[in-house]
């Protein structure tokens, strides 16, 4: 904003393209973006002194006027119009200016000579004053939040930058104005709404209204948004005079919600003072904030809201927003409460809830889901987004008008957790957008014990939201009406633009991180101030009583009534003896379970298909269903290869996947396949999306052309994110049991950056929250000398997490890499016809089956190593002495079928062979189960790589040496003696 005296570059002459560039700059400036000098303008520079008219004028201001003129020549004063027109026709420097006609009707935005008492103003002063006022207005729009009264404690340590904020009546000199100008009247530019119905205001009024709009309890960050319409929309919401007005009835409703929020926490504190509950004290206005968002969204047509939040305030949200029965919450504090059969459950401030009820403000039904989640802060963000996307998909809500999400965050986690950024970056992607999320940050101005100055590098914890141009509304949480207003605006923004928005509730945490914690150890000065802080309910009630909105008696009756509700619920809660987690379900699957809570079927039905159906799907897989569609020559060869397999009645992995997906789609089962590069496949094997080589963005998905009434197939490349995308797909799979939702890692190794989702949601979700989910993970796995980051999907981790419950479905599919093109890795149609089933164990059907009593060794294995073992066995002439049996399903372990194999070869020793290192892979899991199968009567030997810290070597020669060594061990009949 400094008024630099320098040279200015002027454009001679102006071309059509250059005009477009200038118009773009003008729009960018009006939207709040920075100006940049165009290339043609940089090609010509002249001293400002060359034009007497421009002498002493700021370079930036001339650019502003020039761009405004390009946008609309009538929007600038006639003198500027003449000057730029002469320049356009090639006038040399110093000759472009002409005296304008008398000022009879000045253009909007300039000082009116009539308003100045009829005196003819100095033209240079007139232009500079206009631009100064415009710059002043813009300064408030950009930096007003820096001096807004946001911190209830008035101790904010936010450090914006070293430059002082030059705003206020006493700072007008910074803009080239004088305090004597405060009484002058100025026409207002079109980029502000502070005038309301007035087109001109005195400078004093302008500053006062800007301070009321941007420097009170609300601070608005939006000028980084590069869309003029959106910026104007926000300006109108906050600058228009009198916008933050509420009726007496609205104020009474707000007070009633504050009473419930505050007294709920006080009740818990009285009854269970030594229990952790992560109360909401210091941010009680969160409850009316959420209810305001829900009310406004319901008015706009939303009938389902999915929410995610951390533990602070969760019980209050469950009680007063979701409206869970209070006795069900209070019974959680009973130490004698027994767990039901369906799982161990989780701590009370991790649990979720699903509830459909009437919204009393709109008299419309609304479904509210608060997702259960662990202490891993922000991990629930992508899960909520995925479930929201699924609900939108299943109800045909393509614009997000019926289903939406609300995410709550803590300030330290919002700034510190990378999954926040990953989730934001999904917000505008076609296959992941939920058409706008309302983010509410409970800004305690502290982490657990960590000061913000040590917890983040940004000024605000919310700065990450700027990456998707989300407006950020900071608000003092001790001003409930300001909170209510920004939440109304946030809900309207989401309904209007279907984009993310952030509400930053600047508050404090009255207690420590939990009720047992002592915050004075680390923040003594902050908590001295907090102890002196009057509660927000008391402050707001006093204010409304003074205004005559409610009487003291009415206020006290409201408190007494809610306290009575809590006491009655507390009495009922003592009758609860067993904790039923099913009461806390956040994603029920209606119709999937019997009355006893068990799935209607756990059997594995036949997966076979009639041959004509296999052939039909195979023909689709090897063709291009669209006319005049040009595919790549290399892809033509791949499709011809598929057609040849169809003729030969065999399938490789890619075609087999096509058969499986195609048959499910034909039956009406929706399939969603997501992950990095899944459309083509990392190894160029899948090609489910074909690209026209001549028409940009024209694609074809043959899988969607299988049958007229088939279910839709969604296949979508994701952003380069594992944590965020797997969480999203987990949430999507949570919405319905009647879908196949798959996430594929680029390489199986890369799932480790999504380990939090696996450890906290997939593995224990059923036990902790009775949360059903059908997510399938496809993880390419195999040791092929490609190095430690492209070899192992770490199967040992998944096996360790399994509880071997016979009713548990397999979730993890270790998919091949080199086997995608291995000539022996194919299956006949005979393995896929009606009556066939998934084979948990594939026995050896070769020569060993002729005389099983003469077989000396059974080698059990799984995965790619089978083909290396069979090749080596063939080369060694051991086809009659060594049986090789594949265990296709590791967990639940197929004891019954493995026993059939061990009984078949009574004289054979048992070997488990794997290509993974001994401390990795499957050995530690399989060995005790093999021993159990044979009642420990026969030893179980190991053949494979020795223990190692890394998953694989990066040296190809070393890889081959290791391979030869363990194959020698596996097939050497004299290799093992003594106990295993």
Structural features, described:
Helix 8 packs across helix 19 and helix 20 crosses helix 22 (653-667). The protein is built from 30 helices and 28 strands. With 980 residues, the protein is α/β, with parallel strands linked by helices. The longest helix has 24 residues, at 248-271. The termini are far apart. The radius of gyration is 35 Å and the shape is globular. It has 4 domains: 1-101, no CATH class; 248-580, Rossmann fold, CATH 3.40.50.970; 620-821, Rossmann fold, CATH 3.40.50.12470; 839-971, 3-Layer(aba) Sandwich (Rossmann fold). The strands form 8 sheets. An 8-stranded mixed sheet has the order 5-12-13-11-10-6-9-8, with helices on both faces. Strands 19-16-20-21-22 form a 5-stranded parallel sheet. Residues 1-58 and 100-119 have low confidence and may be disordered. The relative contact order is 0.07. Its EC number is 1.2.4.2. It comes from Esox lucius. Pfam families: 2-oxogl_dehyd_N, E1_dh, OxoGdeHyase_C, Transket_pyr. Its cofactor is Mg(2+); thiamine diphosphate. It catalyses: N(6)-[(R)-lipoyl]-L-lysyl-[protein] + 2-oxoglutarate + H(+) = N(6)-[(R)-S(8)-succinyldihydrolipoyl]-L-lysyl-[protein] + CO2.
């Amino acid at each position: 904003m400094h008024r630099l005296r320098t040279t200015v570059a002027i454009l001679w002459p102006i071309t059509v393209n250059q005009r477009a560039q200038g118009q773009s700059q003008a729009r960018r400036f009006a939207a709040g973006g920075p100006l940049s000098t165009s290339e043609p303008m940089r090609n010509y520079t002249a001293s400002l002194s060359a034009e007497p008219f421009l002498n002493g004028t700021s370079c930036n201001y001339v650019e502003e006027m020039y761009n405004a003129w390009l946008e609309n020549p009538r929007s600038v004063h006639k003198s500027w119009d003449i000057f730029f027109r002469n320049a356009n026709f090639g006038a040399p420097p110093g000759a472009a200016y002409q005296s304008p006609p008398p000022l009879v009707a000045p253009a909007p935005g300039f000082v009116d000579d009539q308003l100045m008492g009829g005196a003819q103003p100095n033209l240079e002063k007139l232009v500079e004053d206009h631009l100064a006022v415009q710059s002043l207005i813009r300064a408030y729009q950009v930096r007003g939040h820096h001096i807004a009264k946001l911190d209830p404690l008035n101790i904010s340590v936010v450090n914006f930058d070293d430059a002082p904020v030059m705003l206020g009546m006493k700072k007008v000199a910074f803009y080239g104005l004088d305090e004597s100008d405060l009484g002058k009247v100025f026409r207002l530019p079109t980029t502000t709404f502070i005038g309301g119905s007035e087109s001109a205001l005195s400078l004093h009024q302008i500053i006062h209204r800007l301070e009321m709009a941007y420097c009170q309890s609300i601070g608005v960050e939006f000028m980084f948004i590069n869309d003029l319409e959106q910026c104007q929309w926000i300006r109108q919401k906050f600058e228009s005079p009198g916008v933050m007005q509420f009726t007496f009835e609205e104020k009474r409703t707000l007070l009633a919600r504050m009473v419930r929020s505050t007294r709920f926490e006080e009740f818990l504190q009285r009854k269970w003072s030594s229990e952790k509950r992560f109360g909401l004290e210091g941010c009680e206005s969160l409850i009316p904030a959420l209810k305001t968002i829900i009310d406004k969204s319901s008015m706009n047509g939303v009938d389902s809201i999915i929410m995610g939040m951390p533990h602070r305030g969760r019980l209050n949200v469950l009680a007063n927003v979701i409206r869970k029965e209070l006795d069900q919450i209070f019974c959680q504090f009973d130490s004698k409460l027994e767990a039901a059969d369906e799982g161990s459950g989780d701590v009370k401030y991790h649990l979720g809830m699903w509830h459909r009820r009437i919204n009393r403000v709109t008299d419309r039904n609304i479904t509210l889901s608060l997702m259960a989640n662990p202490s891993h802060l922000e991990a629930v963000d992508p899960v909520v987004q995925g479930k929201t996307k699924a609900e939108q998909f299943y109800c045909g809500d393509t614009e997000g008008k019926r289903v939406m999400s609300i995410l709550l965050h803590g300030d330290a986690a919002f700034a510190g957790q990378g999954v926040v950024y990953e989730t934001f970056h999904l917000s505008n992607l076609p296959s992941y957008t939920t058409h706008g999320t309302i983010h509410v940050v409970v800004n305690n101005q502290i982490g657990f014990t960590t000061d913000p100055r040590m917890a983040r590098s940004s000024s605000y914890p919310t700065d990450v939201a700027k990456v998707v141009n989300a407006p950020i509304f900071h608000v003092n949480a001790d001003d409930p009406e300001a909170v209510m207003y920004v939440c109304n605006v946030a809900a309207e923004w989401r309904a209007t633009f279907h984009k993310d928005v952030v509400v930053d509730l600047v508050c404090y945490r009255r207690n420590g991180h939990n009720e047992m914690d002592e915050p004075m150890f680390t923040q003594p000065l902050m908590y001295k101030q907090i102890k002196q802080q009057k509660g927000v309910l008391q402050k707001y009630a006093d204010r409304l009583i003074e205004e005559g909105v409610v009487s003291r008696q009415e206020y006290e009756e409201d408190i007494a009534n809610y306290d009575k509700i809590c006491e009655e619920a507390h009495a009922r809660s003592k009758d609860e003896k067993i904790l039923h987690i099913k009461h806390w379900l956040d994603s029920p699957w209606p119709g999937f379970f019997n009355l006893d809570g068990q799935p209607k079927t756990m059997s594995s039905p036949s997966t076979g298909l009639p041959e004509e159906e296999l052939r039909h799907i195979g023909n689709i897989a090897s063709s291009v269903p669209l006319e005049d569609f040009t595919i790549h020559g290399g892809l033509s060869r791949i499709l011809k290869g598929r057609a040849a397999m169809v003729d030969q009645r065999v399938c490789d992995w890619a075609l087999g996947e096509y058969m499986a997906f195609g048959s499910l789609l034909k039956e009406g089962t929706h399939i969603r396949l997501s992950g990095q590069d899944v459309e083509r496949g990392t190894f160029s094997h899948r090609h489910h999306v074909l690209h026209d080589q001549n028409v940009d963005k024209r694609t074809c998905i043959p899988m969607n052309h299988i049958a007229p009434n088939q279910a839709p197939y969604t296949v979508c490349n994701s952003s380069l994110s594992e944590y965020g995308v797997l969480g999203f797909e987990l949430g999507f799979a949570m919405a319905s049991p009647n879908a196949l939702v798959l996430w594929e890692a680029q390489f199986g190794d890369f799932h480790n950056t999504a380990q939090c989702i696996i450890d906290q949601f997939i593995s224990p979700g059923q036990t902790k929250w009775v949360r059903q989910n059908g997510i399938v993970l496809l993880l390419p796995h195999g040791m092929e000398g490609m190095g430690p980051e492209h070899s192992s999907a770490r199967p040992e981790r998944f096996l360790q997490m399994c509880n071997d419950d016979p009713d548990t479905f397999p979730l993890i599919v270790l998919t091949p890499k080199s086997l995608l093109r291995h000539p022996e890795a194919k299956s006949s149609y005979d393995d896929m016809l009606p009556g066939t089933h998934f084979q948990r164990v594939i026995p050896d059907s070769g020569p060993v089956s002729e005389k099983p009593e003469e077989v000396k060794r059974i080698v059990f294995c799984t995965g790619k190593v089978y083909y290396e073992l069979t090749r080596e066995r063939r080369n060694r002439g051991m086809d009659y002495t060594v049986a090789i049996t594949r265990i296709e399903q590791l967990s639940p372990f197929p004891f019954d079928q493995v026993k059939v194999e061990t009984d078949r070869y009574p004289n054979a020793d048992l070997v488990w062979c794997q290509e993974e290192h001994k401390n990795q892979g499957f050995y530690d899991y399989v060995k005790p189960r093999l021993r159990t199968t044979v009642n420990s009567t026969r030893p179980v030997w190991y053949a494979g790589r020795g223990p190692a810290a890394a998953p694989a070597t990066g040296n190809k020669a070393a890889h081959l040496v290791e391979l030869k060594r363990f194959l020698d061990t596996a097939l050497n009949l004299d290799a093992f003696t003594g106990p295993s």
